[in-house]
Amino acid sequence: MDAALASLRVDDRSIRLDCPGEWLRMHRHRLSVCGVHVATPEEVAHGGFAEHAIVPDAPVPLTTRWFERITPFLAAPETPAGLCVGFGRLSHSHHRVVAAASEEATRPDFVPHYGSRYALGSHSVRLVDVLTARGGTRTTSVMDPRIAPYSEPTVARWVGMHYDNAWTSHGEGERYPRDVRVACADRRVIHNLGPGARSLVFALNMSALHLSDKVSPGDSRNVPSTKQLREFLVEHPAEVLKIVCLVWTAEVGDLVVLPAGLALHDGSMEGRRHSSSALVFAGTFPRGAFSWT
Predict the structure, then answer these.
(1) The Cα angle at residue 207 between residues 202 and 213, in degrees rounded to 5
(2) Bridge partners for 268 per DSSP
(3) pLDDT digits (tens, 9 = 90+) for 48-73
(4) What is the largest CA-CA distance in the chain?
(5) Residue of 263, 253, 54 whose CA lies nearest to 163
(6) Which of the four, 4, 175, 242, 270, has the lowest number of CB atoms within 10 Å?
């Protein structure tokens, strides 16, 4: 981890933090860092992970020295929203929307990603799902038999770190060139319903754009899948050691706005005693859409 942090560099494909530097310093106790590894045979056989899943390592608290390595990843004014992770909370005026969306997601015929549209203030959002995770799990995403193309319906395995399917308001994200994906692909709002805290793990330096340049250099239309990431890391084990992830703690009522189709990510309940449910919306949110209050 020390070597990876020491070599960490920001570029125009990196995931950025959409918050003021002073705010980040005030909340640095919620941050830690971790590396990743390819799932071991034991994790596949007994830990429930898919073969070659990308598994986050145990988080390490940020020292002052390593915190300074993270601050260059603060978003600049010109950074597009599609590369930004934002932080915030919903206001009390949104509680009815949260309740209605949560109820919709419990219906037997609900299919993830195909939920109704809701209004969060001036923002139109689409319900993606409500994701419940028990305490103590290293990651939270499980292959879902309701989404047949992305599942193993007979085997409920942990997905591990991944890129989302990245649906946009106009269709399937992978059909768009990478510059369009950065400019206007949907981002996810992940709102922690509780009752416990949960963590979000996301890589700063292995966005889908980084991977695209590694597996298809010069191809401006290519946006690789999680499967291609796994294959690449299995073939290039040295690349695994370079990946640096931030681990952000979301308390009950907190939300994160994530470019889930471009940012390598997953949830985590490691070290948590209580379960947590997360309400997930999708929309083309501008930067600063949900301010911290």
Answers:
(1) 160
(2) 199
(3) 998 999 999 999 998 888 899 999 99
(4) 50
(5) 263
(6) 175
Helices (H), the chain: 2-6, 21-26, 41-45, 64-70, 95-105, 178-184, 208-215, 226-235, 237-240
The model's confidence at residue 251, banded by pLDDT at 50, 70 and 90, is: very high
Q: How far apart are CA 18 and CA 24, in angstroms?
A: 10
Distance CA 44, CA 230 (A): 14
Amino acid at 193: L
Distance CA 13, CA 16 (A): 9
Q: Which of 233, 229, 187 is nearest to 209 (CA)?
A: 229
Which residue matches tokens 């005693």? 273
> C-alpha distances in angstroms, 200 versus 229, 246, 253?
19, 8, 14
Give per-residue pLDDT as tens, 16-35.
Answer: 999 999 999 999 999 999 99
Is the bond preceding residue 195 a cis peptide, omega within 30 degrees?
yes
What is the token pair recorded at 39? 């799932």
Which residues are within 8 A (CB) of 185 and not within 5 positions of it... i.e. 6 or more apart? 82, 166, 168, 173, 176, 259, 261, 262, 284
What digits encode the pLDDT tens for the residues 140-155? 988 766 655 544 555 6
How, if at all, do strands 254-258 and 84-89 pair?
antiparallel
Q: Which residue has the tokens 């308390």?
A: 251
